[in-house]
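User: Glycosyltransferase 2-like domain-containing protein, Kitasatospora putterlickiae:
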Amino acid sequence: MTGGARPVGLVSVVIPARNAEATIATQLEALRGQTYPDPWEVIVVENGSSDGTRALLRSWQRRMPRLRVALSGAPGVNRARNLGCHHADGEFVLLCDADDVAAPGWVAGLVDALRTSPAAGGALERRLLNGPLALAARPPKKAPALLDTFGFLPYPAGANCGFHKAVWTRLGGFDESYRGGGDDTEFFWRAQLAGYRLAFAPHAVVHYRHRGDTRAIVRQAYGYGRSHPKLYRDFARAGMPSSPLTGAAGAWWRLLLHAPDLLGPTDRRAALLAQLALRAGRVTGSARHRRCYL
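Assistant: Predicted structure for Glycosyltransferase 2-like domain-containing protein:
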């Protein structure tokens, strides 16, 4: 605790988990090694897994007494987050993912930020858990910071963020209609528009795992792109800028120029296919939500 900071009650960590048998033990082990000295709990929401996630979590409950498991009746990351927040007893709620690894000071870093701000996001370290293919498709930023993809309001990734539970309650939770992208962005934009300050916690580090094969990378990029027109539909009146047609045309032209990469090395092919999928997702999303955001 920093000097003069107000005391904090219980802190809750919420983890959505769907088919996470291969990775969640590493995340739980990382959480067991946190340096934060005060009371906190972990709530894993088993989100409709078809692998051995549920059985693995039962075994971990015997090793980690502060771990609770909630069962979601249907998949959806925001559905899982809402269920976890509903069960959370903490004053602060922190979110991370089942396939990442929280650095030892993660809980302490977010809690320090939340002592003075109602919402916060931490830093994503992208190299430790990812190979050349994943890094080519989603290159790391030069310096850690909150995300600012749309030239509107900053936002943290749902894999590394936190908020006062009272904020979640007053906002009515996460919007469960967002699936495959925009799910965390929408919540933190809505929070800021409601007057809640968002802080960046540079010492709250999560080692972030990207999709590891081309098909999964493309599927995720398409989902992200499809969500962008929906965000524009919901936030244009609040000031989210449009996507100029000249910019979209330039992006498609650059993709055309790089078409030979489809026959090149695997990492370059994955990077090109990810951008193609993102743009295709925007076209699909624009038609679906009747908002042109290309």
